[in-house]
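Minutes, structural biology subgroup

Action item carried over from last meeting: produce the structure token record for HAD-IIIC family phosphatase (Nonomuraea rosea). EB confirmed the sequence was re-checked against the source entry. Recorded below for completeness.
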Amino acid sequence: MDALPQALRTAVGERRLPDPETRAALRDTTDPALSRRAGRLLSGLRPQDAPIVAVTVLATCTIGPYEQLLLSQLVSAGVFPQLTVGDHGSLERELTTGVFARPEPPGFVTALIDESFFVPRDWVADDTTALEKHIRARLVDLGSAVTAAARHSSATLILHTVPLPAELRDALISWRARTRITRLWYELNAGILALGDEHPQVEVVDLAGLMADEPYAVRDDRMHRYGDMPYSDGALLLLARQVRRIVQAGLGLSRKVLVLDLDGTLWGGVLGEVGAGGVQLGGLYPGNCYAAVQLAVRRLLDQGVILVLASKNDPEPVEAAMNAHPEMVLRPEAFTVRAVNWSSKAENLRRTADALSLPVSSFVFMDDTDFERAEVASRFPEVAIVSAAGDPAHLVRSLLRNGWFDALSLTEADRRRAELYRARAERVEFSGGYDAAADYLRALKIEVEIAPVTSFTVPRAAQLAARTNQFNLTGVRFGEAQTAELSTSPGHLVATVSVSDRFGSEGAVGALWAERGQSSWRVLNLVLSCRVLGRGIETAIAAWLAGSAAESGAETLVGRYVPSKRNGVAAGFWTEAGFEDAGDGEFVLDLSTATVDVPAWITMNERSGHE
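Output recorded by EB:
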């Protein structure tokens, strides 16, 4: 336990984020006292090169150690939060008036709500009808405050359901009355959850439901009376962990690839020793544990997670077993890449990253062998490691508990991701048959379509803004609500960029946000998935923008580049497209004298409007 605080002190002293191993220890701790202590140590951290996210905490009660627990969890995600805490009991006022959004709006607002918001202090036990009426009215008040907050700010607002306090339930001596108030409380929490459906920028954590699966008490009665703290440290740690998962997803830090071992992970036993008929899969324990984890993995695949098989085995018996075993859920075709050989798993992971054109920071590696996990962790510390060792009954929980693949919303592009990246791997193999890059690009038969967003594509554009880090020109993360608002503004343009080639459609891989002035257009941001970089698509987008601006009568097109730790690949984009460097990160194209040409190997779809 002393190792973690010492590692944090070192990071604070060196003004850097803790290393990946220390962040993993922060993330995985279930000890509220240790997590609270870590948060206090991290309060002195001022990292020089970490992504910074502004987070505001609003509450109906005293927040206690929530600030420290939240700081600890968010740092574990690899970001540094600038935390602002609202006044005690100020949640409704600040949401309604938008005070929390001034002077600078936060990226995220996490609300801490207890029953005092809904239940009057002097409620009457033999008049449950009046109590029900009051609770329902307060739910309406909360909905109104959330609606107002959505008008004031584009911040993601994180709410949570409220556990039913025992002292409220047990104060009613009639079992029928208890049943009635319990049913009402479920309706209340259902209403809070529904706010997430009504507002795209609202996310709701089911704290009441999650508490049933954790070893913590919801409330420490003494601290509740002593300091108006309605939640125990354990409950607050659980909420902070869920907020961290939402922030991870909102900032595009979720993972895309799940790399899986086979022996001891997807089935029990060693194939080379027991044969296909001897592995433990399906039936009774422990075989049912491996069947359950395969089902969990398939559900991830259905939602767009890319699967990679990394097994030290001979490929022929693996292929035969995966096809023939009647309880096998994940057949060979479920895996975008199959690295079944006797090479180092770390090396196989590197080759897979190259084939998919994805950074290893987007990978999760699950294996039952300590050596394999340690080797991958030492070579690629940014890879998320999941242990499959120990009792296989815990496999599904181990895989899912940290929310590595969380998304704020799921788009059709997400669901097709495995298919898209399988085609990407085929492109890499196809490119080996050409000596010149231009010949390869012509052979791909690339088509690009740029179209204004619709209600169906707004979520995808916002998701691209959140998840794209390499070719992200300004780093502005336009959320779903903000993107929808700009898309209906006559003075703005929001569009998605879709790409297809001889291997099929890549789907919407890019998005742009622009301000359309009479004499000048200004690009607010342009993002493009790294999986299509190097094909000239970014130049085709610049050509389309220049053509659209010129047709509107604009005299100049202004682009901007804001350097970050991860977007160096886009540093020369504007000048390479023919724009003049105007200083302060701005680049200008004089539309009266200059144009941008679409690369010869790219065909612009008719809906794009410009050749």
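Discussion: Residues 128-152 form the longest helix (25 residues).
Next step: EB to file the record with the rest of the batch.
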